[in-house]
Request: fold
Amino acid sequence: MSRLSQLSAVALLCSATVSTSLLAQAPAQDLSDAEVAHVAVTANTIDIEFAQVALARGLNPEVKGFATTMITDHSAVNKQAADLASRLGVTPADNAVSQLLLEGAKETLAATAQLQGSAFDRAYITREVAYHQAVLDALDGLLIPTTSNADLKSLLRAVRPAIAEHLAHAQQLSASLQAGK
Amino acid sequence: MSTHRHAGRRAVLPVLAVALVVLVAAGKPAAPATGPQRRVVVIRGMAFVPSSLTVQQGDTIVWVNEDIVPHTATGLQPAAWTTGTLLHAQRGRVVAREKGVIAYTCDFHPTMKGALTIQ
Reply:
């Protein structure tokens, strides 16, 4: 995967329509382990926050169930990451990719600010499909290859199947919503 | 009378017991005499391992969650049973009651599929 496509995948963590100006701000160098940890925690936290919005503004019980699972799972991953960072004596370091994610999240929240009920459900699940696909791409193309610490790499590898399941689950829900179920 | 009858029964019972053992041994030469077993399914990488398991009625199936995220093992209708929520490193158990093939899933991750065949 090229550097540009890796960064595109990361940008998609928060928005499927992230602007090219955001990509232009992306760092040219690989991430340090402390930065990878920060990116991972930021990505999890953003999805938790979107899920909390979904619980407040969504309608479909299955969509709300999915949102609850996102909160539970991404919180569990963040706890593992925090425990690992503490054990290693590493402080996650803010970086341009994390900032890119946060800017994308703001864009997505703004784009869905006026949506409620079924319209929000569809927008949320569509975004979750793109988000988890982007997370998988970022794990495979950037985060796992970039990480040098064996424990952090192992954690990222352990998280990958959960992201893949979330993607498949979101795809199922998206199909169900499109069919009007 | 009663004593004699009892003495006679004591004499006959060992013979019947030996005959019974011989008959059982002849009918099932390879089958050891065992009771209900404990079978383990590991939840790892968002999958039930093994995904398909054959057990005997009365066996206990134990699910061990090795994943970071919580899981359940929950029977699909009409077999409504569940281990309840299993956090990382927790285990839950269910006794195989009804014969048949039972599909099950995780309440939180519906793409996870497993099956029990209870004989």
